Amino acid sequence: DAGVIQSPRHEVTEMGQEVTLRCKPISGHNSLFWYRQTMMRGLELLIYFNNNVPIDDSGMPEDRFSAKMPNASFSTLKIQPSEPRDSAVYFCASSLATANTGELFFGEGSRLTVL
Amino acid sequence: AQSVAQPEDQVNVAEGNPLTVKCTYSVSGNPYLFWYVQYPNRGLQFLLKYITGDNLVKGSYGFEAEFNKSQTSFHLKKPSALVSDSALYFCAVRDALTGGGNKLTFGTGTQLKVEL
Hints:
The complex is a heterodimer of chains A (115) and B (116). Chain A is mainly β and 115 residues long. Chain A has no helices and 11 strands. Chain A has strands at 5-7, 10-13, 19-24, 31-38, 42-50, 53-56, 65-71, 74-79, 88-95, 105-106, 110-114. In chain A, a hairpin with a 3-residue loop joins strand 4 (31-38) and strand 5 (42-50). In chain B, the strands form 3 sheets. In chain B, strands 2, 5, 6, 10, 11 and 12 form a 6-stranded mixed beta sheet that branches. In chain B, strands 3-9-8-7 form a 4-stranded antiparallel beta sheet, with no helix packed on it. Chain B has strands at residues 3-5, 10-14, 19-21, 24-26, 31-38, 44-50, 56-58, 64-68, 73-78, 87-95, 105-106, 110-115.
């Protein structure tokens, strides 16, 4: 079975450039989560969607960050313009909301380095 | 509000010895509790969960966790550690009263190092 698929796995960019991270959730899952992981702050929830609708974006750091889920099988996290402090590993996770038991399935992550 | 605390940044144990990774939680209602493991350069993987029922929960790779309501704890345990258990372990909580999907709050993680 295909798990959560994220791309790119690694991204190195220069400050000021636009970065787009992509996620394909597990087929049939209707909740999607974007997390950011850094040494300093650990694992932070940025935003999550239920049935393609953003439910809670209180973790999005600032207006430079935006996330979309145009359909059930695709989501993007965009940073524009990027800054060195955005360097982190970004994880996408999906789950079946109606299962109500909290098991999230994580992708392998996208490691972002902003120079 | 829901929160979880992992008081140890790192736990070291010798292979073959029992291991414990500690977690305490805070929720308004009844807790749903979880352990996840992260190997280097990988995403988090689900290990086990407590929803209701027996306080001792068994999960993958021989791990188990004990729910203690009076101490608001959910410590992860394994009777005999393996070197391959070395990884980063996350405790997570969700308030059973929370609607809107499986929004979990994760702890800061505990690095487990098992040595020969």
